[in-house]
Amino acid sequence: MRVLRSFAKKKDGATAVEFALIGLPFFALFLSCFEMGLLFIRMAMLDHAVNTTSKSVYIGTVTQGLANNTVSSDDLEQDICDLVGVVVPNCANNITIELTEIDNLVDLPDTDAVCRDEGDEFEPVVNFNPGAGTSIVFMRACVTTDVYTPGLGFGLELSKTDNNRFEIISSMAFMNEPF
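^ that's the sequence the OP posted. Answer follows.
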């Protein structure tokens, strides 16, 4: 009995027990907030890159200097990856660009975005039609990325690929200039 009383009176290790109880939820919240900020930066950079690249498509400057005066999906993918920089790792292997000519702004594609994943062996087939002068074009870019804490917070809300990577999608509709 005396041993139990002396054990109950000791305060050694009280701080370690408190840290063990509070530390894990604190670090989980910290990592979730950090990752959510990183994903928002990736989304904002992708939106900016799609907006800037679509502007060069609809005013016709994207085709200047190209051999056959036409733009390819690889050209646009490279332009977008140059703009997002290091924020999206391995962008060139994880991006898919879709350009679809539409009749009006209500007639948007009813299919989901097709995303390429670096783990896949195949190249997805997407519509790539930059349109002619005065045509309305819907542009969609999809980038796949890893989420480091998928079970916490924002990562649960993103759509996934077959390889358990997450999709970030940006879209833009515009009317080509009469060039």
